[in-house]
Amino acid sequence: xxxxxxERRFGFGGAGIALVLALFFIPHLIKDTTITVTAxxxxxxxxxxxxxxxxxxxxxxxxxxxxxxxxxxxVFVIVGGAIFAFSYWxxxxxxxxxxxxxxxxxxxxxxxxxxxxxxxxxxxxxxxKYGDPTFRGSNVKARERAQQRRANRGVRxxxxxxASAPEGSRAMPAPSKRxxxxxxxxx
Length: 187
Fold this sequence. Notes:
By secondary structure, the protein is mostly helical.
């Protein structure tokens, strides 16, 4: 079964968020940018070499080349496009893998994608096991199955006690020619 409309909308939303996050990298891809790197102050209150102390925080400015940002930009664009494509074609496994990949590859920005992948995985499990991806529907099916098992167990135990034969009088199955090894004569 493909994605239902709710899952598909969340997939499109996740793809949109990934592509919006990719837009934040475009200014870094056009020109050199300066980022601020911070470090802890040493035990004596001074900063490591090339850092300056500002309000008890050691920091330095680092100039980055546009090629520094290309891998992160490509991850967002390619995997975000894949999430969009899998949502469009209603392919649940691809959408789950794409969201988990993007969530793991992007660090703290990927928490939303990890949550989306986990939610889709739980719904896929419920759909496979109970035939209904919703929490309410799967609970109803689980209760029905449990009641049916209890009823079958009660019927089976009552009928088996009346018709059961003693253990010693059970007939042994005939040996299989294919799986039973030939017996050697002991003489």
